[in-house]
Amino acid sequence: MHSQVSERLLSEADDLELAADDAAGSRLSRDQRAELWLVALVVGVVLILVAIAVFVTASGWPSFAHNGLRWFGSGGNVDNQIQAMIKSGQYGQHPVYTFRAWPLIWSTILTTAGAVVISLFISVFISIFLVEFAPQPIARVLEPVVRVLASVPSVIYGLVGVVVLIPLIGNHLITASEKQAVTPVLQLNGASLLAAVVILSLMISPIMISIFSEGMRAVPRSWFEASLSLGVNRWRSFWNVAVRSARPALIAGTVLATARAVGESVMLAMVSGTVGFSPNPFDGLLFFFEPSRGLAPTILLNNDELSNNAVAPMLFAIATVLLFSSLMFSLSGWAARQPMKRYFNYGGASA
Amino acid sequence: MSITSATPTRRPTASAWRLRDRLGLALAWFLGLLFCAICAALIIYLTIQGINYLHPAMLFENPKIGYNQSESGGFLAPLVGSLICAAIAMLVAIPAGIGVAVWLSEYARPRALARLAESTVEMLAGTPTVVLALFGLVVFRSQVLAFLSQSAGGVVLGKSFFSAGLMLSLLGLPFVVTSTREGLTAIPNHVREASYALGKTKIATIRRVLLPAVRPSVIAGSSIGTGHVIGDTAIIVMLLGNTYTLQGAGGLPLLSTLRGTGLTLTSYVYDNAPTGALNHPQQAYAAAAIMILLVLVLNLVVDVFARKARAQRWN
Amino acid sequence: MELKPPPPARRLDHASRLTLVEPPPEATPIPLAAVPSAAGAPSVAGVPSVAGVPSVAGVPSITGVPSIAGVPDGAPARAATRLPAIDRMQIEDVSLYYGTAEIVKSVSLPIRQGEVLALIGPSGCGKTTLLRSINRLTELTKTARMTGTITLDGIDTQALEPTELRRRVSMVFQQPNPFPMSIFDNVAYALREQARRRPRRAVLRDQVEDALDRAALLDEVKDDLSRPALRLSGGQQQRLCIARALAAKPEVLLLDEPCSALDPVSSQMIEDLIDTLREDLAIVIVTHNLGQAYRVGDYVAFMYLGELVEYATAQRLFSAPAKARTREYVSGAFG
Q1: What is the pLDDT of residue C287?
Q2: Whether residue C25 has pLDDT greater than 60
Q3: How many CB atoms lie within 10 A of CB B188?
Q4: Tens digits of residue pLDDT in B266-277
Q5: Is residue A291 in a domain?
Q6: By the CB < 8 Å criterion, does B111 face chain A?
Q7: What angle do CA C188, C194, C199 make, to 5 degrees?
Q8: Residue C15 falls inside a structural domain
Q9: Cα separation of B211 and B202, whole Å?
Q10: Among A172, A291, B142, C285, which residue's CB has the most CB atoms within a 10 Å radius?
């Protein structure tokens, strides 16, 4: 790897270093000092995450303390509650902390669940296609496509959604009579659950596809050949062998994508609507066209009010909920992969 | 043991491809091609819109406040803002990321700390960016860190390039760590042993043998991280003050810019989109086209260096 | 030639099993017309016993050559069997190409139920490729091409659906590769996949136990069939793979160096196993181990650089090979 000359040069530089160490009489060797610095760095990073959890929770505590568990429940129009908070904070009156976050939570649950389910389905099939059935030229195109889609910024997804998808839904899918019917309560302009779920699925699919396909590729080919040689067709063979054996990767990918979906703020702020409305599944088809606003977009949309003493705790409280959900996802993904270690010993994906 | 007869019995020869298998294969094909089509459509659409509204002059003008879209000037300031944020973020994230990766790969004792560190990096990667932004506000509004941003009347603003950049570094860190770590674990032990056999210390081995070898991985990971940093909006919107130009904060030229507020391409697009405050979609398209270009270039870089990393041979 | 006493009973005793069909003096490749088919006469009558076979003129007897894996010269006679061998498959003038490289050159061989065909030859001679072409696994490689015909019971294998062909022609691989499932699920895999409706576990259980029994594994695992298959030892895993292949009652069994990854005890078990399976199946085994080919094989085909050099009974090929190349290989001159 190194030429003879550079080898000698390197030795000399290092020998000089070691000699300098000895001369300085330092108690710790160069190695030990380096290790200490690195440990300090690692501990620092860990402490930063701890600090995030602590500071965000502490700042949000007043909101939880005031509302108790009803913070998570529903009761009244959440937008009105926010307005009340803003006003109370502005005029220095007794700050109002009443907050019932359920509509926001419900919106987050709907968009996340919808996007994850759809994305899981299409990502599994696309991964199978990519790994086994796509002819070489198509596979060579599909791989960079997945990478590009993964790196498109969410604000651009939002822009395209606002400019292309929302007018499509608002003008072509929602009928005028439907809009009239709900006018007193809502404005149906296309910013909706449907738009949010569609674009969010597109956003999180590349994450799932890259992890799934990596997992499927790691499965030993001999299993596939064994299944084929027992007379099972190529599709079933691949499904039985690769998809089943890649279950740890499937779980890891789903968890990562779910965390991404829960934390998405910008695109949803632009596309899913800005009213804190709880979409009602019993509204039939209208359910998909109803606007809503999730937890993360709420923070983003209200970020001007962060200096307002009544609003700030509420926003931090929402952030606490988001933070702990993403933590929970990581942990549950790890726990779900444990029982599967029983059957796999080919040294595949680590925990 | 059974002894079969001399002439074998023929079993029913049903085709092994059931309908649902054929449907599955068809679906796989359909979705795969659909995905390619969507990506192509997205890029083509943005390129067309960009060509429509992007004039080269825009790259060199600052945004102006104008009612007409054609008077809105260019996006030099956002472009510079994006680059500054990316620079600060990666200047912190790359060394820190390499350090963490090296420790995880070469030291990793005590084991509890190693597991904790791994989980931390994973959890950082999964933390929503709004949460990071809020944390940034808490931290940088404190009096201790007042030097990193402006203050007015004793109240620390907390919003500056420093704050945004430092929070963005947390965003980019996990990518650098994962990629570098992958590169380091791919180096077989005999390379390290050869270096120790020559009498080199562990840290010298790392500095002179291992790190140069994982350069492609580091570059790949940094490029992915940079892409995410440039594309982030939440942290920018909440930590950068959102002024039309880069408003410095008194004092030395470079430092004042970094302590001051500004904007980036992402917040520019966010504001100019139909849902944003300004509602100048044409500007938004132009800026979006530039961003896509940046993203595609970064992807290419990642591609090239990831391939180099994979192609390394150690015998 | 002095007849040594028969080897210990552990060795495969071909005495009651083999129909000896005297191959023509030039041992390669057998013109098909000369091979009597199963439809009709068992060709038992008029077969000379081995003791009377003179060594081929001009070929020195191999008494001076170190014995192969302990096989004594002049092994015991292989007498006529009660059941004739049944023609199952024919490999007719098959050549295999990967891209432009010709891996297998014009090979013709019969595969018969009731006898074991052993393919031997040095590495890279094409024997594994030939084996894999029998159940069309070579089609997985995109650049593979085949000329010639392989027939199964008279039908061209290319005319059959690959899945149908592979149900009838099973394969066991070099590295034991049980699926990451329980033992039961491994063996029941083919049965579940081939059934129209989900079979009841009780029905499956009988077939699974039968297959495990035929593979000589049942006694060792019957206490707990739901154990993960990957926890078994290497030899057990390979026998599990054989049970898995047998579960669907194939007609032909292909074995690709099944013992090369195993210890000698497990290898012996598998060789005994092959012996018991011989009557029900046509067996083709590729092996590097000349002793194994001798012990297990009834007919041996020696391939070199893609060509079929010699095809003869095991007895004949190892004691009095017709071709010089065969003689060199069999005596260990090259490997």
Answers
A1: 92
A2: no
A3: 10
A4: 998 998 888 888
A5: yes
A6: no
A7: 60
A8: no
A9: 12
A10: C285
CB contact under 8 A, B35 and A146: yes
Please state which CATH class domain B77-310 belongs to: mainly alpha
pLDDT tens digit string along A111-139? Answer: 999 999 999 999 999 999 999 999 999 99
Distance CA B288, CA A127 (A): 29
Q: Which chains touch C (3 or more CB pairs under 8 A)?
A: A, B
Is C11 domain-assigned?
no
**Residue C18 maps to a domain:** no
Q: Please determine, for the modelled complex, whether the ipTM score is greater than 0.90.
A: no
Alpha-carbon distance values, A62 to A96, A167, A344, B261, C94 (Å): 11, 41, 48, 30, 82
The per-residue b/e assignment along A291-320, b for 16 or more CB within 10 angstroms, e otherwise, is: bbbbbbbbbbbbbebbebebbbbbbbbbbb
CB atoms within 10 A of CB B78: 29
| Residue ranges of domains in chain B | 77-310
Task: Return the CA Rg of chain A.
Answer: 27
Q: How many angstroms away from the CA of C297 is the closest CA of chain A?
A: 23
Identify the H or E element spanning C96: strand C86-98
Whether residue A197 is contained in a domain is answered as: yes
pTM over 0.90: no
Domain count, chain C: 1
Amino acid at the residue A242? A
Residue with token string 């895993």:
C237
Residue A127 lies inside a defined structural domain of this protein: yes
Q: How far apart are CA B202 and CA B206, in angstroms?
A: 6
Neighbour count for residue B52 (Cβ, 10 Å) = 11
From residue A279, alpha-carbon distances to A284, C2, C116, C173 in Å are 10, 96, 71, 57
Q: Is the peptide bond before B110 cis (omega within 30 degrees of 0)?
A: yes
Judged against a pLDDT cut of 70, whether residue A329 lies above it is answered with yes
C40 class by beta-carbon count within 10 Å (0-12 exposed, 13-18 middle, 19+ buried): exposed
Number of separate helices (H) and strands (E) present in chain B: 13, 2
Whole-angstrom distance, CA of residue A347 vs CA of residue A344: 8
Q: Could you tell me if A177 lies within 8 Å of chain C, comparing CB atoms?
A: no
Identity at A121, one-letter amino acid code: F
C-alpha–C-alpha distance, residues B128 and A153, integer Å:
14
Examine the pLDDT at C69 and tell me if it is beyond 50. Answer: no
CA distances from C210 to A17, B1, C206, C207, C245 (A): 72, 9, 6, 5, 12
Quickly list DSSP for C129-150.
HHHHHHTTGGGGSTTEEEEEEE
Q: What are phi and psi of A241, to 5 degrees?
A: -85, -60
If DSSP codes are grouped into helix, strand and coil, which group holds residue B182? helix
Please give the helix or strand (H or E) that residue C89 lies within, else none: strand C86-98
DSSP character at residue C2: P
* Distances C259 to A187, C221, C293 between C-alpha atoms, Å: 74, 20, 12
pLDDT at A335: 67
Mutate to test the interface with A, among C135, C179, C192 (most CBs of A within 10 A): C179
B-chain residues near C194 (CB < 8 A): 16
Pairing of strands C169-172, C144-152: unpaired
pLDDT of residue B277: 81
Radius of gyration of chain B (CA): 26
Under the banding of pLDDT at 50, 70 and 90, the label for residue A290 is confident
| Cβ proximity of B303 and A144 under 8 Å | yes
Give the number of domains in chain A: 1
Q: Which of C167, C180, C190 sits opposite A245 (nearest CB)?
A: C180
Looking at residue A220, which CATH number applies to its domain? 1.10.3720.10
Q: Which domain holds residue A141?
A: 103-301
CA B257 to chain A, closest CA, distance in angstroms equals 22
**C203 found inside a domain:** yes
